[in-house]
């Protein structure tokens, strides 16, 4: 009988790069990925309040009329609205490419909530009136929409971001003035900036009363992206290929997918999503309390995942399998629905863009001959399981 390994990413000691606990956690995570293609991460950067706001927001989002949801089109597979598919009739998802730049501080667009974050605009109106603007051209707004935990998470992420080597930071280029990395300027030698572009969305949410606004979605996306980077740095270190991972990090983009499964009638188990591996580099799944996610072990057993608000399933995708020369196999998983409750989940999917992924030579030797050619990560086929 298998059980998915659970690894603690809440203990600050385990998160201090290079420390004994960090190295032990790195080894534990890598072994779990090798054995199961995935593991459960206990992670507390998405606070319970934020978690509740996000899942309430998801309910509102999927309640929008289908005519509006389909407006969120995309020419890229997996992006935009996906639903009404005959062989998985319970499944609906909306994917948002909310980042195209460096590291995990990514923006989920305000366009999704075209009326803006009401709480913010109301409070700023009461705190600062027109006369303050007339008098000073600015005012100080008191605003409690960003909790202390989120505030800390943002600035911790910001430290990590600016701690990256300059060679990596400058990869974040942009044709738009003031976007991308700005630094090393002789007249302002103390200054460094990294500007992240908001991706426009075609989605229009007309009459919805969202309890979750763009900030909540953005912050939970950022926190999950941070978890991805912690795990990837650990895996790269465990394999002694840290230098190979740094350039990949610079071209990692994140797709945030919001997913809903309809409930089934009666006790029958119905397929929510067919068994597959993800064509991502890594995937991190997070969900509400309704069970359904199942992971296939190497010997063919399906393990049920038992969710909790602080648990995240970290999964290797096809990209990670190729990059590790098959040492880590992509996780084969499916969703089975049972009972009368709908299920909501969030997936943060990472892709490496614009470069061909070369297999680190450190992972190839006589006993482990090269299994994959250098590949374009976007050309791996979706929705299939090799085992
Ligand atoms: O909803 C889930 O937990 C799984 C979703 C999934 O596997 C996918 O979107 O690729
Ligand atoms: Fe998947």
Automatic annotation (TrEMBL):
<dbReference type="Pfam" id="PF03171">
    <property type="entry name" value="2OG-FeII_Oxy"/>
</dbReference>
<keyword id="KW-0223">Dioxygenase</keyword>
<feature type="domain" description="Fe2OG dioxygenase">
    <location>
        <begin position="251"/>
        <end position="354"/>
    </location>
</feature>
<protein>
    <submittedName>
        <fullName>Oxoglutarate/iron-dependent dioxygenase</fullName>
    </submittedName>
</protein>
<keyword id="KW-0560">Oxidoreductase</keyword>
<dbReference type="GO" id="GO:0051213">
    <property type="term" value="F:dioxygenase activity"/>
</dbReference>
<dbReference type="GO" id="GO:0046872">
    <property type="term" value="F:metal ion binding"/>
</dbReference>
<keyword id="KW-0408">Iron</keyword>
<dbReference type="GO" id="GO:0016705">
    <property type="term" value="F:oxidoreductase activity, acting on paired donors, with incorporation or reduction of molecular oxygen"/>
</dbReference>
<comment type="similarity">
    <text>Belongs to the iron/ascorbate-dependent oxidoreductase family.</text>
</comment>
<keyword id="KW-0479">Metal-binding</keyword>
<dbReference type="InterPro" id="IPR026992">
    <property type="entry name" value="DIOX_N"/>
</dbReference>
<dbReference type="Pfam" id="PF14226">
    <property type="entry name" value="DIOX_N"/>
</dbReference>
<dbReference type="InterPro" id="IPR027443">
    <property type="entry name" value="IPNS-like_sf"/>
</dbReference>
<dbReference type="InterPro" id="IPR005123">
    <property type="entry name" value="Oxoglu/Fe-dep_dioxygenase_dom"/>
</dbReference>
<dbReference type="InterPro" id="IPR044861">
    <property type="entry name" value="IPNS-like_FE2OG_OXY"/>
</dbReference>
<dbReference type="InterPro" id="IPR050231">
    <property type="entry name" value="Iron_ascorbate_oxido_reductase"/>
</dbReference>
